[in-house]
Design goal:
Helices cover 76% and strands 0% of the residues. It contains 3 helices and no strands.
């Protein structure tokens, strides 16, 4: 059984909701990018010193990185919607 995730239609949201969603998504994406960077640095240091544990953490950091690209594309779509409404 496949789980289908419905895409949110930003055109249906009010201007205030779009601005809130853009701010929240930007903040969460920035925090995630920072944490993944720290994790990647720490994992690299662990891989150098201890081997396998660090390598497995590098895999975790790399596997979570597509979330950043998804969030960046959402931010871009929200900004385009805000520009189309002359709100940005």
């Amino acid at each position: 059984m496949a789980i289908k995730i419905a895409k949110e239609k930003f055109s249906d949201l009010s201007a205030e909701d779009l601005i809130k969603k853009e701010k929240a998504t930007t903040m969460v994406t920035g925090v995630l990018a920072g944490l993944l960077t720290v994790l990647l640095i720490m994992a690299t240091l662990l891989a150098i010193t201890q081997g396998f544990i660090g390598i497995s953490l590098i895999a975790v950091a790399l596997s979570l990185s597509p979330i950043l690209f998804i969030n960046y594309s959402s931010i871009k779509i929200i900004n385009e919607e805000l520009k189309s409404r002359n709100l940005s």
